[in-house]
Amino acid sequence: MKCRVEIPGAMHSSCPGRTPKQVPAMTQSLVTMLLWFAAIGCGLMAGVYFAFSAFVMTSLARLPPSSGIAAMTAINTDIVRSPFMPLFFGTTLAATVLAALGVLHWDAPGATAMIAGGAIYVLGMFIVTMVRNVPLNNALDRADPASAAAADLWTSYVRDWTWWNHVRTSASTVACGVFVAGLVAS
User: What residues make up the domain containing 65?
Assistant: First the structure.
């Protein structure tokens, strides 16, 4: 019989003849801190993405294409130099670590939430950003805002970038809720 190991919990033992043992407080504290960080990080990221989905892109789309392209390119330049980037990568790292811990200790309280939250966030936010939004940003950055082709590029950019941003908003929001559920379960 394989013994069950619990990460976030106090006393446990699923092996006959063994006495329950205490999970190290450091492990519990680490998981709890990661869950809090991931939940708050996902919530903050969801808020940033929601703002773009709800009104920033709509407002930029009303501008003449050359102005919209210039504004979005400026945003893309500034965002990589802002506190957004440590939050972006830090939350992704926390979600990844939580998912891995959940897999390693799949029968622990909160493990399912750790796995689900990590997978939803990493796939729905990080991978979507890298595979969809960043290439669109790079194409926009290479465009000449004054060219005739820029108007068509801008129209498709706003449509496609915003659609994928809705995915990131949803994934970040759902992951936030799932990580909160993980905190409650643990």
Answer: 27-185
